[in-house]
Amino acid sequence: xxxxxxxxxxxxxxxxxxxxxxxxxxxxxxxxxxxxxxxxxxxxxxxxxxxxxxxxxxxxxxxxxxx
Amino acid sequence: xxxxxxxxxxxxxxxxxxxxxxxxxxxxxxxxxxxxxxxxxxxxxxxxxxxxxxxxxxxxxxxxxxxxxxxxxxxxxxxxxxxxxxxxxxxxxxxxxxxxxxxxxxxxxxxxxxxxxxxxxxxxxxxxxxxxxxxxxxxxxxxxxxxxxxxxxxxxxxxxxxxxxxxxxxxxxxxxxxxxxxxxxxxxxxxxxxxxxxxxxxxxxxxxxxxxxxxxxxxxxxxxxxxxxx
Lengths: 67, 230
Description:
The complex is a heterodimer of chains A (67) and B (230). By secondary structure, chain A is an alpha+beta fold. Helix content of chain A is 21%, strand content 49%. Chain A contains 1 helix and 5 strands, in the order E-E-H-E-E-E. The longest helix of chain A has 14 residues, at 25-38. Chain A is globular, with a radius of gyration of 11 Å. Chain A starts with a strand and ends with a strand. Chain B is 51% helix and 18% strand. Chain B is built from 6 helices and 7 strands. Chain B has helices spanning 3-10, 21-53, 60-85, 93-108, 128-148, 193-205; strands at residues 90-92, 114-120, 125-127, 156-164, 170-176, 208-213, 218-224. Chain B has a 5-stranded mixed beta sheet, covered by helices on one side. In chain B, a hairpin with a 4-residue loop joins strand 6 and strand 7. In chain B, helix 2 packs antiparallel against helix 3 (60-85) and helix 3 packs antiparallel against helix 5 (128-148). The longest helix of chain B is centred in the first third of the chain and has 33 residues, at 21-53. Chain A binds chain B through residues 2, 4, 6, 11-21, 31, 34-35, 38-41, 48, 50-51, and chain B through 1, 6, 9-14, 28, 35, 38-39, 42-43, 45-46, 49, 127, 129-130, 133, 188-189, 191, 199-201, 203-206, 227-230.
């Protein structure tokens, strides 16, 4: 499955977009978490698929389920 | 995502390389390039998945067209990084949109097949981070028109406009004179590569995306708030 990941980076005014392949939603969220933990500039990351927001990850890492 | 590219995105931009401003600039440039390459890789992977869903084998000319489309996106990103390398931080959208539109038509359409009509206002400065997705949207919408507007192969027209709205917002429209949307296809939910890409880029921009099937022709509008240079 391909997920859309939107990254809020404190250096930019526009979100960063990535298309990420993942086995399932949990795998996609794991990859997004790794991105968030791995870059000090990333404030939050949204994971989307099928036109629906699946999760928002924020720094400090916490999950806010949507839907 | 390939591991090396993923690792690059994880790499924090920090002064630890040497502590100098130049080193930070280089690190940030590399981070932007890594972002762009990651986006391109994801687009190619999504395109590959779309091809895999086809219920028939593609012909050589169709495969060649897909590769040319991908090359067009890479060209667009390369062109913008080239401008960044010259120190530009704000781009004139009329120049960029013109370059992307002309290059896309030249790359994908037989000579004389498409008349490109450009209505591009000046004074539409756009920060670099906004210009990347705008350029990709314009290229993809023109590509979509070139591929689908005139299935019978008759010559057609594609109009591209860029102007500032009354509230300072940017309005970008791509209009063709073709057959419109296929029956049963909703561009706001379709999982086709082009629509999905354009929707993702519009969301990235915080922009409104609308499709207007005019019976004869399709108009796609991207409406985005003015942004301050990043």
